[in-house]
Amino acid sequence: MSWAVNPNRSTLAIFVVGLPMVLMSWAGYAAEPVKLGLVLPYSAVYASLGNDITNGLELALSEVNYQVAGRPIVVLKQDSQVSPKVGLQITKKFIQQDKVDFLVGPVASHVANAMRKAAHDSKTFMIIANAGSVVLTRELCSPYIFRTSFSNWQPNYPMGIWMAREEGIKRVAILAPNYAAGRQMMEAFKEGFLANGGEILSEQYPALGESDFQPYLTNIAQGNPEAVFVFFSGADAVKFVRQYAQAGLKDQIPLYGSGFLVEGKVLSAQGQAAVGIKTALHWADTMDNPVSKKFVRDYKAKFGEIPSLFSLQGYDTGHMIIQALEATGGDTSDKMRLRRALEDVRFESPRGPFKLSRSHNPIQNIYIREVVNAGYGVIENQIIAVAAEALEDPGTGCDL
Ligand code: PHB
Separation of 132 CA from ligand 1 center, angstroms? Predict the structure, then answer.
């Protein structure tokens, strides 16, 4: 064999020996699954929220046959209950043992706060599919933490403004569970309400998972407010709304809240007790746009029930991950590239155009919904006003 140019034999050897290795590792890389570790509640007060988020996510993944850019997607699930301690344990296991590419969850703000350091320090992407903890997209913002849901400020601040200005309500009693989300939501409501001439007659913070609201309802009635504004969700929301009606307050003092109060299975369980309640949120299953209608139809076909807001947030989380992976060609090793891809995600969500702020939180409309008897035994949330358009949580960015 003669060479026109003196070949570098060692390079050739490396090339010949190296080629199958490169091909093997490429093939190995192509087949390497992308792992999602779901840190969600499948028990306790927020169990139905965790199940809905999981279903929404699985619907989005099933649209691409659990495959993106040649890589299969696998979903690992663990029950975080509503415990910061359990949530953190699961998070560490997912990061260290399972080496997940994305953490998905959690539902509760105090659980999210507990997970934050482990995700940030290990540079593991965490896509928050519900928990609205404001610090995570403000002072504790992280390049690796994104949210597809809302900040606790987002629905409540404009609701405070709307109630004072549009409903002419000036004297209210407020109530929420005593933990990060309850406190932050009430602060946001007060910010909008007090600046528009409102007055808070009483603030009460029962424990998360409270079963007897009677003493709190007695206090409310004694103060004789024009309206009551609350945040409750999951099993707490079912119990509160039922007990509010049983105490005879429903027809005396109008009840308002953030929309979690009357969402999905919670609304079905409340039934007539919920009719007339007005709430603020970034979506309603009755929303009249083609993307939302398709989502409701597909979800119903797959799971036999109407999706909730939590299902929607799981669905959008799936789309966000899929689109970012498509943009990187399935590469999850270059963290900065994947971060930019996640930041650049844009799609038509059932709630409207999906786009993140510089703090990794959705910029979105907030709607006022009212629970109505739609006939034929159907009780649903109908949108009656737009409280805020393209509302951005006041965070300043995630370049730590
Ligand atoms: C939260 O803890 O951030 C939280 C929980 C349930 C909701 C909304 C927010 O429905």
Answer: 6
Model pTM score: 0.93
Q: Which atom of ligand 1 is least distant from the CA of 237?
A: 10
pLDDT in tens, 12-47: 333 333 344 444 444 444 579 999 999 999 999 999
Atom 5 (ligand 1): residue with closest C-alpha?
108
Distance CA 359, CA 136 (A): 9
CB 237 within 8 A of CB 211: no
Q: pLDDT tens digit string along 285-317? A: 999 999 999 999 999 999 999 999 999 999 999
DSSP string, 203-228: EE-PPTT----HHHHHHHHHH--SEE
Q: In this structure, how many other beta carbons lie within 10 angstroms of the beta carbon of residue 295?
A: 25
Q: How far is the CA of 182 from the centre of ligand 1 (A)?
A: 8
Residue partners of 346: CB distance under 8 A and separation at least 6: 353, 354, 355
For residues 184 and 399, the answer to whether their CB atoms sit within 8 Å is no
Distance (Å, whole) CA 364 – CA 164: 22
For the chain, domains (ranges, CATH) are 32-150+288-362 (3.40.50.2300), 153-281+365-391 (3.40.50.2300)
Cβ of residue 181 lying under 6 Å from some atom of ligand 1:
yes
Question: Is the pLDDT assigned to residue 164 strictly greater than 90?
Answer: yes
